[in-house]
Amino acid sequence: MGISMKKTLTWLKLFIFNISIEPMLFLFYAAKTTVSVVKEDLKLERFCLVTLNHTQEECSDLIHNDNIQIEVQHLDNDFLFFESVVGMVIPLIFLTFIATWSDKHGRRVPIIAPMTGFVIWCTIYFFEALFPTWPPEILLIATFLDSCGGGFTTFLMGYYSHMVDITSENTRTTRLGIVMVVKNLGIPTGQVMGPVLHHAGGYLLVFGSAAGMSVICIIYAFIMVKPKPQNKISNDSSNSPFCNSIKNNLVQFIRTAYKRRPGSDRLCIIVLLFGMMLVNSSQPHKLYLWTRRVLKWDEDQYTLYKTSSELIGQLVMLIFSLIVKFGKVHDCHIGAAVTLLLWSKLISLGLTTRPDQWWILYLFLISPDSFGSMTVRSVLSKICGKEDIGRVFSLLGIMEVIWSVVDNAMYAAVYDASIKYYPSAEHLFGAAITCILFAIFLWVKWIQDWDTIHQKTQYSNSRSPTDASHNEIPSTHIIISNAHIQDRETATDNHIHHHVIADIMTSEAITPNALQNNKDDISLSASETSQTNSQGNESYHYSDVD
Asked: Region Disordered: start and end of each range (predicted)?
């Protein structure tokens, strides 16, 4: 008994002393989701009262005033598109350099800057609620100033990179799992808090509380996340102009993603990057506006659904993860299955036209929608390898920011055209996108299987009595040898490696003399270019665990 209690106390002590930014993540996610529904109500109210000049009585009962609600939702739909445009530019710039910069200086800035932007956002919404005559267009300023902190994508990159920095390989998976659980618990907490605070003290209490929680998070992060010591910061970080740094990073991302690779790997990466855009476009977009228009829901009913969705979603994710782990299912098969479930959900929502069909939304709470993006990232990481995945994920983040504008433009056009006669049309549009995504997952699995069979055939032919000799080595062995050469010359031979691979892939078998010549060429070229490449290639670690 005494030994067991001692072990428990020791474990508890280690757990407490290992706590890092987990409490901050819980509180900040709660703050973000506290305002998620209430902010939409404020915008709808301002469009109705200020822009359209309707009376308070008419605007307080939009659910039962179809004509006014259609007018208001038209304005809000257009506003959401402009928000996506205004909020894109600065995060796009941030993503091209902040990860490399934080590798040298620490993660404090990419964690604190987005939270500071959110505090400014809450402050402007607070004053918008305080002065009823202010037009809703002022809220675009809030979106822009929020984006000046780097946006939520920068925050994700910052806290994930920090957790990678402070954990060992043995404990990293467990710690990241704990982080995911903690932050996800903050989401339903905030969704419950929002309506409660709104009923208790109106908009001012909601936005004031969210700003206060975010300030606490900033102070906590400032204390817990330490910058790197100055003597560990590379002296060459100030030699490159800011614009050149952004350009060079972006070029590196693109070259890494589209460089020549064995088999069909490069084509698979290109297709999967496009597939990730479709994953984002296949999710329901105007869900809150749609539930108000079709199901006649109010804020409380929608919040109940979203809270249930988050809680049940976590349980479904856990069960699905266990099935995937012990069932040893291929990633592409998982993606295809999840996409098929999502297609069924969108088709069902697309055919929903009456308030008494509300149960359809709850029926699909068991659909693990987020597994689509996780599957794409998993397949990408396995194709790219550890040395390239950081840059590929960075390019993916940039593409997602740019695509969000295209995505919002498409759905804004669909919803605007259909809101009066058939508002569920946007779900049918999403279902059509999932068909393409489903085909992508199956194609990637097929092409990978084909590459495997082709490589085995080549290897068998190279070992046949008519072709094999002691002076010949299969090209697959050359590629492996070349990978070892690249490991020794990581800082200087990226460009040379591409040409060597290209030469190797054109021949069925290469003699040891040719291999030695390739090694000599690489060593010579690497030494000749060491002066021009003294800065090396910075490691860019970014992955989104969300």
From this structure: 525-546
